[in-house]
Amino acid sequence: MNKLSSKLGIRVLKLSALFAIFLISSCSIFGNQNYLSHRVADNSVIVTTKHGEAKYSALGEEAIEVHYLQNGIKQLPSFSKQESLKVRPLNVEDGWSKITLTNGALSAEINKYDSSVSFYRSGKLLTKQKSFFNNEEKLGFDFTLDSTEKIMGGGQRVLGMDRRGHRMPLYNRAHYGYTTESNQMNYSLPFIMSSKKYSVLFDNSASGFLDIAKTKADTLTFEAVGGRTAYIVFSGDSYPKLINNYVDVTGTQPLPPRWALGNIASRFGYRTEQEVRDTIDKFIEEDIPVDSIILDLYWFGKDIKGFMGNLDWDREVFPTPVKMISDLKQKGIKTILITEPFILSTSGRWQEAVDAGILAKDEDGLPKRFDFYFGNTGLIDVFDQKGIDWFSEIYTGLIAQGATGVWGDLGEPEVHPDDTIHFLSNTQQTARGDEIHNVYGHQWAKLVYDNQIKRLPNERPFILMRSGFAGSQRFGMIPWTGDVSRSWDGLKPQVELSLQMSLGGLAYTHSDLGGFAGGEVFDKEMYIRWLQYGIFQPIYRPHAQDNIAPEPVFHDQQTKDIIRRYIKLRYQLLPYNYTLAYQNSTTGMPLMRPVFFEDESDSNLLDIKDTYLWGDAFLVSPIVEPNLTTHKATTHKMSLPKGVWFDYWKGTRYQGDKDIQFPVTLETLPVMVRAGSFIPMVDSINNTESYSSKNLTLHYYADESVAQSEGEMYEDDGHSLDSIQSKAFELLSFSSKHTQEQLSISLERKGKGYKGMPSKRELTLVIHNWNKPVKRIEFSGKRLAISEYKLEPNSNKITISVNWEHQSTQLIIQ
Fold first, then answer.
1. What's the gap between Cα 421 and its chain centre?
2. Does the model's pTM come out above 0.90?
3. How many CA atoms lie within 13 A of 244 on its CB side?
C-alpha cells in the first residue's frame, strides 16, 4: 500500500506539473485570460475584462455592434447610427470557452481566453476580429480576411471596385482635378463590403486609415488617432439585402423632391442677377427642360477671395434678389444657393461671429484663425448649439427670401487644423479637429435638414454637399464626386465612384457633368458623352469653371440638339426614375446598381467598374474614350449579363452572358433594356411644375424566354415630406405572363392616394419585340377594335391606347 501510495503521489505531482505548464501556456496563448465575467443589461451583453468592458448589441436585422469601453479611452458619440435606433434582444448562450450571441442568421462568438470575436452567418464563418489595439499613437481593430474574398468600400476612391491591397486614408480631403487614380477624396467611409456578403462599419469619426491586406496579409485593419472604439458587423443573404440591413441602422435617404431629378443649371459661377435671368431664358428659348439653378459664391461677393462668410447678397450685382427668385419661380425654376462654413476675418460678419461665440476655438479658448486659399478665416462650430442656432438663422433668412435648396461646399472641411477645438453640446465634450473632422459635413447637413423641416414642415429638403460620414444620407444629403478634371480621364472613374458610394447608402452620388477643373479648349465629344451618361445618374447637373460654358444652351447647334434629346428623355423617364428614388428610400436599393447584383456567385463581376444597371431595366455602358471618327458609325464593346437584352434605340435583340459590339454614333449612348421590363414614361415637359402622369405610356419588352415578370410605379405629389410615412401615394403594379399562345399583362393600383392624383389614366401600352400576327386584343374583358391599337411590323411593336380607371384588370394579346 505504501509503494502504491508513493507511486500515485508521484503521478499526481507529475500531473500537477503538467497542468501548471498547460495553464502557463494557456495564459501565453490566450492573452492572459482577459475575460472576468459577463451580464445582460438593456438587451445588450456586457463583458467585463481586466482592461474594462465590451458591449455587444443587436441593432437591426443581422447587425451586431461591438463597443469597447476600456479604461482611459475617450469615447466620442456615435454619428453613424440613427438617433432613434432601438436595441433588439440578443439570443445568448454561455459556454465553457465562449459566449455565443445570435441576431437572426448572424451570430458572434466571443472567445473568453483571447477576447477575439468570430462572426458567422448560418454557421458559416464570415470574419474574425482577432485583436483590438490601443497605444499612444492609435487605436483600432484587426479582422481576418479569406485569401480569395474581394473587398469594396472606403467611400470615394479611384482604385477599382476591389479595394484589397490598398491602405486608404480616412480623412476627407478634396482632390482637385483628379483623373484615373485617387486614394483620398472628399468623402471617405470607414466601411467595407465583402464578396462573402458581410459588411463592417467602424463607427469612429477620427482621422485614420483603412488597410485592406496591404500591410498585413489577409488582414483588414482599421486605425484612428482617437474617437470611438466601436464597429458594427452586418450580414445578408444577398447584396441588396445586405445594403438594406445597413441602412436600417444608419438611416435611409429621404425621398427627394421630384424636381431634384430634373435638369439643374450650374456653373462657377453666375456673377450677376442679369446673367442668372438670361441663362434661364436661354434654356426656355432653346427648348431644353430645366428645373433649378445654382448660384455659386458670387452671390455674396464680387471676387473669389475676401468675401466668404458674408452670407448675404451683393446688392451691386444682385440688386433685387427676392424679386429674381420670385420671377424664376413663376417660370417653374427653383433657386439653390451655395454656402460655406468659413467666416473670413475680412467678411461683413466676422465681428458678429466672434461676438456670438459661434466659431471653433483654439487651445486658449479664443476663436481659431488660420489662412487658406480664400483668406484668413474662422470655422463655424456646427457641433456647438450656439453655432447651430446662428447658422440655422442664416438658412431661415434664405428660406424666407424664397431659396429652395442649399449647396454646402468645402465641408470636409477643406482646411481643418488639428488644434481646432469643437464643443459637442449634446455630450458636453470637446474634440480636436482630427477627432471630429470626418463628421463635420455630416453634422452640417443635419443642421440644414433639421432647420428646413422646422421652417417648411411639408417640403422635402434639397441639400447638396461633397463631404460627410456614414449615415449622412438620412439627412437628405446629395453628394457629388468633387472637382474632377474636365477631361476623358476625369470621366472614366465616375461610374466606379457612384457605385462604391451607393454600397454605403449614399445612392445620390453624382458627378459634375462635363467635368469641372481645367480644360482650355472645348472638347465637344467628351462633353456630349459625359452629358449623355448623366441621363442615367441620380442627379443631372452640368457644372464647371466658366472659361468654358457648362450649360448645353451655350454651345453649337449639333451639341444642343443631341443634349436636348437626352434631357427630354430624362424628363420622360420621370415615372421610372422617381420609382427608383422610392425604392431607395424604403430599402436602400441604389439607383445605379453594380453588375455583380446580377449573379452573386460570379466574383469576376465584382471587378466591373464601367457598366452598371440603372434600376432593374436598363444596362448602361458609358463611352469614356474619344473616337476620332465621331460622325461615322462605330461600335462599343459591352458585356451583357445573363438573359435577353434589347438595344434601347433600335430594338435589336441580344442573347446575354457574352460580350457584344454595340453600334454607336455620336448621338448614341450604349443602353440596353432587359427582356421582361416595364418602363413607365410620360410625354415631354419643360420642367416638373407641369408634370402629370395622367397620360401614361407603359413600355413592355416581351420575350418568350421570360415567362413572367413584374414592375411597379410610385407616384405622389412630388414634394410632401411625409408622403411615404402617411401612405399618401399610389403604387401601380404591373405583371406579365408570356406563353406561346398569348401575352397577358395585369394592372393594379394600391395606396391611399394624394392630392391631385389622376382619377383615371389615358394609358398607352407599347409592346416591344412582337413579331407574330395578332388575332385579338382584350382589355378588361372587352375586345379592342382595330382603331384602338396599331401594329408596327418594321419595329416589331404593338401600340395600344386604352382608358384605365385604376381597376385591377388585364390586357391579353393573342
1. 30
2. yes
3. 12
Q: Are 141 and 203 in contact (CB under 8 A)?
A: no
Rounded to 5°, the CA angle 615-619-623 comes to: 125
Tell me how far apart the alpha carbons of residues 365 and 221 are, in angstroms, rounded to a whole number. Answer: 36
Q: Cell 479658448 sits at which residue? A: 365
pLDDT in tens, 406-454: 999 999 999 999 999 999 999 999 999 999 999 999 999 999 999 999 9
* 440-455 helix and 385-401 helix, angle to the nearest 10 degrees: 50
How far apart are the C-alpha atoms of 481 and 497, rounded to whole Å?
A: 7
Among residues 381, 412, 716, 730, the one annotated as catalytic is 412
Average pLDDT over residues 578-584: 98
692-813: which CATH architecture?
Sandwich (2.60)
Dist CA 99 CA 383 (whole Å): 38
Cell (9 digits) for 35: 475575460
Write the CA distances from 129 to 115, 119, 205, 779, integer angstroms.
9, 8, 20, 60
User: Which residue, 254, 298, 349, 220, is CA-closest to 545?
Assistant: 298
Catalytic position from the list 62, 203, 409, 512: 409
Q: How far apart (Å, rounded) are the C-alpha atoms in residues 696 and 210?
A: 48
Type and span of the H or E element at 559: helix 557-572
Q: How is the chain split into domains, by residue range?
A: 1-30, 692-813
Note if 459 is an active site residue: no
Beta bridge partners of 697: 681, 764
Residue-wise pLDDT for 57-99, tens only, equals 999 999 999 999 988 889 999 999 999 999 999 999 999 999 9
State yes or no: pLDDT of 7 exceeds 80. Answer: no
Is 556 in the active site? no
Instruction: Tell me the three-class secondary structure of 133-190, residue by residue.
Output: EECCCCEEEEEECCCCCCEEEEECCECCCCCCCEEEEECCCCCCCECCCECCCCCEEE
Q: How far apart are the first and last CA of the chain?
A: 102
Is 90 exceeded by the pLDDT of residue 15? no
User: Which of 109, 483, 616, 703 is labelled catalytic?
Assistant: 483
**Interaxial angle between packed helices 557-572 and 574-587, expressed in degrees from 0 to 180 and rounded to the nearest 10:** 60
For residues 734 and 709, what is the distance between their CA atoms, to the nearest angstrom?
8
**If you ran DSSP here, which 8-state letter would residue 257 be given?**
P
CB atoms within 10 A of CB 557: 8
Active-site residue 409, yes or no? yes
